[in-house]
Design brief:
The chain is built from 13 helices and eleven strands. It is of the alpha/beta class. A hairpin with a 4-residue loop joins strand 3 and strand 4.
Length: about 325
Amino acid sequence: MIETINRIRTEIAKTIVGHDTLIDGLLIGLLCDGHILIEGIPGLAKTTTVKALSQTLGLTFKRVQFTPDLLPSDILGAEVYDPQHNGFKIKKGPIFTNLLLADEINRAPAKVQSALLEVMQERQVTLGEESFALPPPFLVLATQNPIENEGVYPLPEAQLDRFMLKINVGYNTPQEELTIARRVASSTYETITAVVDAPMLEQLKTAVRAIHIDEEVENYIITLVQATRNLEAFGLGEMAKYLQFGASPRVSIDLFKASRAAAFLRGKNFVSPSDIIGILKASMRHRLVLSYEAEAEGIDVDTLIEAVVKAIPVP
């Protein structure tokens, strides 16, 4: 099974240089049916990486550019009048796909964000009086730019909580950037070949679900999540003023699933604490709500998560 994952990596590397953390996060989402939020400044190949992943899969893929004038019907579809039959019919939107790239998702207003709540949680769309189940797998892979504050709308907490992981994308290394510049300047691109179809993806998911998690490691996950809800009880009273709301139960569920996938990507058949710690920030950073004091004192969410990890004994 790991050979198939390596083939996916090889195909993506034809277009993408570096960004291993982002690629691993996308693979974890794919293996766990989890939505992924990708954040980074412009020009870091966020959209290109998602498109490269989609090309390695024998799945349907659609891209929606989110803009301030976007309407829910532009994504979901709508009932439209059919003059030939003197009635209404359903016109399905781009949401009816396997992989949906929601590009610059924070450029759309609240009414569009709300339209995604049902489909991200229930994987179904309600149009008029009918509900339509989406074909599995269905993933929302969304990108957003963290540095703009004009023409953007912060995602509501209810929607953020539906993303399994939030991946922060940084700059490439100097050598990687040199490789990118040479490749783009010379227009030397290789064609990406699809290496995984739907049946093979199901086999990979089955293999991930078979990864063993020891009871002690399971309790470690729950303790990490509980600590964010009651910092004082875990010796982090000095950090309590920086946190308004801790992690939701979805974090526990997603950590159980994502830690298995992380171990699988490492070629292991069991989950170790290092697998959990490796994905903890990506699982929590968009779900913890910081206080005004944290912003005023320059305390970011990753710093708080690091403090929680240090406070909890590793089994």
